[in-house]
Amino acid sequence: MTTPTFYIDMKITEEGNAQKGSNPREVMVVLGPAYGKELNKTIVKVDHASVLREILSGIEEQGAVPRVIRSLRTADLAFMAHGAAQLSGSGISIGLQSRGTVVIHQRDLDPLSNLELFPQSPVITLEMYRQIGQNAAKYALGESPNPVLVVNDAMTRPKYQAIAALLYLKECQSLVPNQKPIELKVEFSITE
Amino acid sequence: MKKLIAGVDIGNSSTEVAIAQIEDNHAVFLSQHLVKTTGIKGTIDNVKGIRFALQEAAKKAGISLKDIETIRLNDAVPVIGDLAMDLISETIITESSMIGHNPDTPGGAGMGIGITVIIDQLTAIENKEQEYIVVIPKEFDYEWAAHRINKAEQDGIIITGAIVQKDDGVLIHNRLTKEIPIVDEVSLIEKVPLGKLAAIEVALPGYVIRTLSNPYGLSTVFNLDPDQTKQIALVAKALVGNRSAVVIRTPQGEVVERKIEAGRVILKGTNKQQLEVSINDGAESIMSTYEKLGVLQDVRGETGTNVGGMFNGLRYDLAQLTGQAAEEIMISDFLAVDAVIPTSISGAMAGELSMESGVALASMVKTDKVPVQRVASLLEEEIGVAVEIGGIEADMAIRGALTTPGTRKPLVILDMGGGSTDAALMSESSKITSIHLAGAGDMVTMLINSELALDNKELAEKIKKNPLGKVLSLFHMQLEDGTILFSKTPFPPHTFGKVLIREENDLTPLPNKLSMEKVRDIRRSAKRRVFVTNSLRALKRVVPTGNLKHLSFVVMLGGSALDFEIPQMITEELGRFGIVAGFANIRGTEGPRNAVATGLILSSVGKEVVQ
């Protein structure tokens, strides 16, 4: 048995201002201003394409419908996700920054409150991104899933804090003041 | 002449005290208190708890401890109990031949039959007459796998189903040009034999599989003769109730339900009478054998078997508790109860569980006289009040129980505690017969803990003591009986959508997979199996004629009489014999608590209570 080698390419097309969704099975994924554009790897050098694909796969596997937008007026995770939750048909959203930090949000919560927050981006694995997508879908479908288990590494802070700050600054350079979120069409192609 | 007397009752799990003022042969009760027993009943560790309880009671009565003239201590019954539980059957799959499990999200629906083939060998297939089932280990991405299957389909290879290791069922299904059933989350996929005939079935959401869980369905699929059908029937049994399943036929493959050599129980009675019963016969036949024997002197388990191990373990525990040698321990009573124990099937490929049968045992030994005297002298030394040891516990309990309004002699008390169920009969001439039986509240906790696979004794204890509810929305909760409770305050967020235990001031959510009906059924059946069985057993022993119809008043006491459903179950059961049964209301105010402590005070004056 040989493991096939293949590459995943992500193609993101911008499709104008995002409208409020009406599908109750919809989970909104909101990307940071630079995600997959000016930046293309997370803080631990994982390809943005793989991360987003795992989240979308998780949502789809549970039977919900993923939709992707990009936030341009803010790069703050909580406000990105809270804004996206208002546009989401189910009221559930996932916020994803370029460095890999994720949150699951719900439209009736306060911006700084949330359903599940994964603040230590260096320790999030691809399997966890998949589970985060699955959990968000479960919330959207009205289930109450067990939160995704998070590992805690006390050394991530001293090791990555400076890099995280730099990545956030870099992400902020892509901000467009007063620009509403943009609807995105994300396509993956696989080549052997 | 006025004097103050305190009664102290040391129980297996709680210590109760009562303080009364005695005036011309009348007792006026001032206060009472209850604490958890410190240490094992009858040991000097108890003193700490007693002192604390006395201080609290004295504070409530507004007196000083020094004012108390005498403290009366109960002569604790020298019996100690212990619990054990083990399997008597086990399902083993040799030559792995089935997968039956409930992944949250399998793909597609329907039934497919074909030869198992690994995904990267698909293109190398030459024989296009055959139908195939694809095996997809976790190294293969879903996009790639779906692409491969679609391509093979175009090349004229017929694919009827897929077995997937990761949780990719829906993802693959959404990318296929032709619908096939897909079973995913098969964790041990490397055990799936390749090149063998397999059948796969996935039911629609909310339905269960029908063909593979039917022995004749399996025989149709695999062209089996009657003998082979008989052999494979166990596979069908193991798959009942699943939403998806795979059965793979390997020439040697078989599923066996192995009866573990559980062994025989040897019951020894008086006059060297001895009866044997196999534990595989189940709890009912063990208990009826015990009934035939009448008086029990000791029980042994056949050495080298499960039951031998269980009884030896009990003997060893009890020897440690009492400080006697293990050989000297004589088991004076035991209760066997059938139990269902979820066990993982050995040889299974997706971590399947099977509900295996087992037996739970509670046993009890008579020990040397419990050294209450030592407790009494230490207590006297510590608080400087004279301590005397009162009469027999059962005697005191009956005196206490008789303060319940509406009772009279002859009276039977049923004392249901944590470790033992005790019964005592007081005849019209005030003669007392008493009996101590193994099995009570702690056994119920053990059964709940294991049958719900909680692995958490505290949670099981909470389930035992409280009713359930399910939070439907911010303000609505569905109760066990189906009624909806509207709350004035919103429920806390961590309880949303969950089944929870309704404690007095707190709501404890249960793990997600447990449904309210299942937890309730197991809770009630565990209580019934232990308490209803034991109360009948106890009453039969204390009634001189052995006929329950000759009883008229039964009063329930002890911690388990406080339970929200046990007394009703027993009242209902005993009602069939025309017995008035209910839980006590000691002194008309205390409910089923404080009987012994009250009895201890009353016995010192020999007169009735004055409120």
UniProtKB/TrEMBL annotation, chain A:
Pfam families documented for this protein: Dehydratase_MU
Domain of life of the source: Bacteria
Gene3D superfamilies, sorted: B12-dependent dehydatase associated subunit
Stored InterPro entries: B12-dep_deHydtase_bsu, Dehydtase/Dehydtase_re
NCBIfam families: PRK15042.1
Name of the protein: Propanediol/glycerol family dehydratase medium subunit
Naturally occurring in which organism (per UniProt): Planococcus wigleyi
Higher taxonomy: Bacteria, Bacillati, Bacillota, Bacilli, Bacillales
From TrEMBL, chain B:
Domain Diol dehydratase reactivase ATPase-like: 277-603
Cross-referenced Gene3D superfamilies: 3.30.420.40, 3.90.470.30, Nucleic acid-binding proteins, Swiveling domain of dehydratase reactivase alpha subunit
Pfam families named in the record: DDR (PF08841), DDR_swiveling (PF18427)
Residue ranges occupied by any DD-reactivating factor swiveling domain in the UniProt entry: 93-255
Superkingdom of origin organism: Bacteria
InterPro entries for this protein: ATPase_NBD (IPR043129), DDR_dom (IPR030994), DDR_swiveling (IPR040916), DDRA (IPR009191), DDRA_swiveling_dom_sf (IPR028975), NA-bd_OB-fold (IPR012340)
Protein name: Diol dehydratase reactivase subunit alpha
